[in-house]
Amino acid sequence: MATAEAPRVRAGKWQSETRVGLVRRARKINRILAETYPDAECELNFDNPFQLLVATVLSAQTTDVRVNLTTPALFAKYPTPEDLAAADPEDVEAILRPTGFFRAKTKSVMGLSVALRDGFGGEVPRTMDELVKLPGVGRKTANVVLGNAFGVPGITVDTHFSRLSRRFGWTADTDPVKIEYEVGELIPRKDWTMLSHRLIWHGRRICHSRRPACGACPLARLCPAYGEGPTDEKTARTLVKAGPVS
Ligand code: SF4
Questions:
Q1: How far, in Å, is the centroid of ligand 1 from the Cα of 168?
Q2: Which of 111, 146, 147, 171 has the smallest number of CB atoms closer than 10 Å to its CB?
Q3: pLDDT by residue (tens digit) across 83-98?
């Protein structure tokens, strides 16, 4: 983690950026993303914390679109943790098959339903410590639930968030927990949940893993990784996706 005025190791003009400069630039990026994606939100559909918890577990290794196509049948048949805990695993597997890794996911969502039924009176807990004790639930899932179902600010470090925060020079780390804490020191706590949505939206639409659309990016002037993708506007525009995509 950078100390007060320690220069951060990055290429070109960013090499001598101070801690204060980094914080200012991070907040400016957050503001521009807020203007660019005023509708940014969780792209998983849910009606209550239990549904969001299950949908987030199911979203591993697949798209939110795919999860949203799958969960209505699941929640119509098993609307509560008690219902899902008592389900026939084969039936749940059949419903979850399109999301991939359906046997492991069935085990996770049924396991967490049993834990909710037996340990929390069928209610999803509202703290990180309790959430991460549920089977199949890590900090990422817990932060999604805290931020979007309970209004408790949380940073969700998924693959997009991780890649973009490194491209922005906010962190050099690859460990999600370290990234969460490092970015948390740059951006005010109240913005953490929305920042997560904004980075994920930007990663899905413009700042792709391969061939980011740098020439069509509103952050071009503020991004040390500008040039990692095509800078020619015409080419870059063809790379921009409308979303929701992945
Ligand atoms: S300038 Fe390029 S690398 Fe930087 S955020 Fe934009 S698309 Fe991503």
A1: 8
A2: 111
A3: 999 999 999 999 999 9
Q: Is 117 in the pocket of ligand 1 (CB under 6 A)?
A: no
Cβ of residue 206 lying under 6 Å from some atom of ligand 1: yes
**Digit-coded pLDDT (tens) for 189-239:** 999 999 999 999 999 999 999 999 999 999 999 999 999 999 999 999 999
Active-site residue numbers?
A: 140, 158
For helices 139-149 and 49-58, the axis angle rounded to 10 degrees is 150
Token digits of residue 128: 């990180």
Tokens 């199911």 sit at which residue? 58
The answer to whether the beta carbons of residues 23 and 184 sit under 8 Å apart is no
The answer, yes or no, to whether any atom of ligand 1 lies below 6 A from the CB of 131, is no
Nearest-atom number in ligand 1 for the CA of 217 is: 6
Write the CB contacts of 235 (distance below 8 Å, at least 6 apart in sequence): 215
Q: Is the CB of 167 under 6 A from ligand 1?
A: yes
Distance, CA of 133 to CA of 109 (rounded, Å): 13
Q: CA dist 154 to 23, 128, 177, 215, Å?
A: 19, 10, 12, 31
Burial annotation 192-229 (CB, 10 A radius, 16+ → b, else e): bbbbbbbbbbbbbbbbbeeebbbbbbebeebbbbbeeb
